[in-house]
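cron nightly-structures :: item 1 of 1
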Amino acid sequence: MFGLSELAVILIVVIAVLAAKKLPDLARSAGKSARILKAEARAAKEEGNQVTQEGEGAPRIVQGETVKRGETPPDQRGTS
C-alpha cells in the first residue's frame, strides 16, 4: 500500500503540524549550540597552535636501551 518513503514524508508532515509552535525555538537552540560548538573548536585549535609554537606540546625523545630479563641494567653494571 504505502512504501517507506511515503510513510517518512507523512511522518515528517505530521510532526511539522503538531510541533509548529516549538519548531522556531528548536531551530534557535540548534543555532546557538552550533555557534558555541564552533567557538569552542576554534579556541581549542588556537590553544593547540599556541602550545606547539612554544614547544611545550612537542613530543620528547628519550634515548634508552633495551634490557632483557635477567640482565643488569646498564646504569647498575660494575657496581657490587
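cron nightly-structures :: done
The mean pLDDT is 81.
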